[in-house]
Amino acid sequence: MFKISNFYDGKVNLNHNLPTSDIYDPSKGEKIGEVVLSDTKELNKIIESSKKGFEIWSDFTPLKRSRILSNYKNIIEKNINLLAEIICKEHGKTFDDAIGSVTRGLEVVEFACGIPHLLKGEFSQNVGTNIDSWSIRQPLGICSGITPFNFPAMVPMWMYPISIACGNAFILKPSEKDPSCSIKLAEFFSEAGLPNGVFNVINGNAEIVNQLISNKYISSISFVGSTPIAKLIYENASKNFKRVQALGGAKNHMVVMPDANLDQAVDGIIGAAYGSAGERCMAVSVAVAVGEIADNLVNKIKNNVENLKVAPWTDKDSNMGPLISREHLKKVLEYIDIGEEEGAQLINDGRNIKIQGYENGYFVGPTLFDKVKSNMRIYNEEIFGPVLSIVRAKDYSQALDLVNNHQFGNGASIYTSNGEVSRHFTTNCKIGMVGINVPIPVPMAFHSFGGWKDSLFGDHAMHGMEGIRFYTKLKTTTSRWPDSIETGPEFKMPTN
Ligand code: NAD
User: Fold this and answer.
1) Which residue, 23, 258, 449, 478, could crosslink 33 as a Cys pair with Cβ 3.0–4.6 Å?
2) Pairing of strands 284-290, 345-348
3) Is 252 in contact with 439 (CB distance < 8 Å)?
4) Among residues 143, 166, 281, 429, which one is catalytic?
């Protein structure tokens, strides 16, 4: 049994007076640890630490910051197995998948190492006669990030490496369901040479989030989680005049056209629907079978689904592990009941799965519904589990309407061998991240991650240049030297 506390002033600070929340091993359904739920006093200490951190860090040259980020990258690479194991124990995803997720986070650190180049401003000579003008980007101050359970390393790493590279201090509030990884990530940053107070971790639940979004010393809020909470955060943090980016839920569609390479499409669907037990914001949860391809597609998916191995992360052959919690398991099972009641055709039923030695784990088997209709709850709502819905569309235009009329707009992909159709799709879909013959179109760190519609509230996506813009303020200076020609006072707007 372990206890996770807060990280500030370059170390873990255990406060025994704080209440705690339980941490579970989802494979066994057993309590394995506790995490503190921070209060105002604890937040105030962390804010003081962050203020000191920011004062020192914002004076570091971008090149010095880059060197520390580079050390950090090396330390994470050396310890990637350790981080993956921590993730598996609390989240339940397979080991290889956990390694993949840390690697995707690490790419953001690699991107942030380029900060001297990324922060280069713009300069114009002679914007007027003998007048020059330049723009620079300066840090905001103390930034904060609130993250979900499903990627305990990657999602925080979408935020803090860039924020810190830009010269800010950062306070991370990870999910209370799997908080251990954040503490390790913070310890490694200190080991890399980051001054104390620049990266702090505060643990807790909604109560501490509400304090973070209203704290006067915090300049920006980055949030990733479910849509109802993303909306709430966006609304309330904006009311408190913070810069906000709030990423929400998803219901990602994969459109399979009659001319698609069917085997490729099926491989894409299986991995993207059932990988990480469907607990990915870029999981494919709807396959849209267009025209005559439908029966063939359903049969091939069905055959693949039957061969998937559901097992704890310690089993190297596992394709997918358990869900995060007993409550979430109940919710996903209820959705399968709802799908049946709504009249969708249940092809593969993941309820009642039993794994020897792990009978109390939060496992659901891969579940497949065919003939799902657009008015059904299982189509409209985010299930966030291994439940794939197949919707049959008569043609491409009907498939595109399905994608565009859905409330979520995170990701979508199309499988086709027709360039014209794929070009029409990328131009006309109301979606933030689009794949062509790629199942999970997650942008690399040097592009930016973010959806449309109810999948993102705010003006900026995460990482890439969007991250640099979000975590900095623009300053433009216009300059003339006193020995240049004097014109006397001017009462009209200057025009040359
Ligand atoms: P969640 O919304 O329950 O929690 C996210 C964070 O918000 C946690 O840190 C939690 O402590 C905090 N929180 C929870 N309730 C709160 C409240 N009432 N007030 C303030 N803070 C609160 O999400 P989750 O279950 O941890 O994660 C799953 C969700 O995250 C899914 O909906 C998934 O689609 C989404 N997600 C989205 C993306 C994306 O990029 N769009 C990425 C990953 C996950």
Assistant:
1) 23
2) unpaired
3) no
4) 281
User: Which atom of ligand 1 is closest in space to residue 205's alpha carbon?
Assistant: 11
Residues 23/86, Cβ–Cβ less than 8 Å: no
Q: What values do phi and psi take at 9, rounded to 5?
A: 55, 35
- Token reading at 221: 């809020």
294: CA distance to ligand 1 center in Å? 34
**What is the Cα–Cα distance from 83 to 96, expressed in whole angstroms?**
12
Element (H, E) at 379: helix 377-380
* Predicted confidence band of residue 135 (pLDDT cuts 50, 70, 90): very high
Report the 10 Å Cβ neighbour count for 213.
23
DSSP string covering 328-374 = HHHHHHHHHHHHHHHT-EEEE--TT---TT-TTS-----EEEES--T
Domains of the chain from N-terminus onward: 2-248+455-477 (3.40.605.10), 252-436 (3.40.309.10)
In the structure, which protein residues have their CB atom closer than 6 angstroms to any atom of ligand 1?
A: 146-151, 155, 173, 175-176, 205-206, 209, 224-226, 229, 232, 247-250, 281, 382, 384, 410, 451, 455
Q: Tell me the per-residue pLDDT of 2-19, one tens digit each, with 9 for 90 and over.
A: 999 999 999 999 998 999
Instruction: Tell me which residue has tokens 């579970």.
Output: 24
pTM, entire model: 0.97
- Token pair in block for residue 456: 């993102």
Most informative mutation of 281, 380, 454, 463 for ligand 1 (most atoms within 8 A of CB)? 281
For CA atoms 219, 55, 168, 99, the dihedral sign is negative
- Nearest-angstrom CA–CA distance, 231 and 454: 8
Q: What is the pLDDT of residues 361-388, one digit of tens each?
A: 999 999 999 999 999 999 999 999 999 9
- Cα distances (Å, whole numbers) of residue 243 to 179, 217, 449, 460, 470: 25, 12, 17, 10, 8
What's the confidence (pLDDT) of residue 494? 76
- The protein residue whose alpha carbon is closest to atom 13 in ligand 1 is 206
Residue 81 in tokens: 């197995």
Query: CA 367, CA 387: separation in Å to the nearest integer?
Result: 5
- CA angle centred on 273, ends 452 and 357, rounded to 5°: 135
Q: Quick one: tokens of 175?
A: 């999910």
CA distance 115 to 261: 41
DSSP 303-316: HHHHTPPB--TTST
Q: How many residues does the chain have?
A: 496
Q: Please, what is the angle between helix 180-191 and helix 62-78, to 10°?
A: 130
The answer to whether residue 166 is catalytic is: no
| Residue nearest to ligand 1 atom 32, measured at CA | 226
Helix (H, G, I), strand (E, B) or coil at 199: strand
CA distances from 272 to 84, 283, 318, 349, 386 (A): 20, 5, 15, 18, 10
Separation CA 90–CA 325 (nearest Å): 10
